[in-house]
Amino acid sequence: MSNSDLVPEPNIGALRLNLARLRHDRGFSFDELAARSGVGRATVVALESGKPRLARDQTATTGTLITWWRLANALGVDLGDLLRPLYEEGPV
């Protein structure tokens, strides 16, 4: 199998930027988005920043489908619109 046959890596960096932009556009603090979505504040911060919640020697969380669904609903966007940046080319 050649490299061109492989599925491309998702652009997690673009997803994080989209989450930050949507949160900022709505004027939500981390605390407010956490409260509206039912997702823990530390998780919201980790998803947006790309930094691990606890152990600094671990990779940051990319969340679960349920987490992203809750965030999309709290931000008032379709899940597909929130996740669309995963398909963008560029640094991951």
UniProtKB/TrEMBL annotation:
Q: Which CDD domains match?
A: HTH_XRE
Q: Which Pfam families match?
A: HTH_31 (PF13560)
Q: Which SUPFAM superfamilies has this protein been placed in?
A: lambda repressor-like DNA-binding domains
Q: Name one GO molecular function term.
A: DNA binding
Instruction: Give the protein's recorded name.
Output: Transcriptional regulator with XRE-family HTH domain
Where would I find the HTH cro/C1-type domain in this sequence? Answer: 19-82
Q: Residues of the signal sequence?
A: none
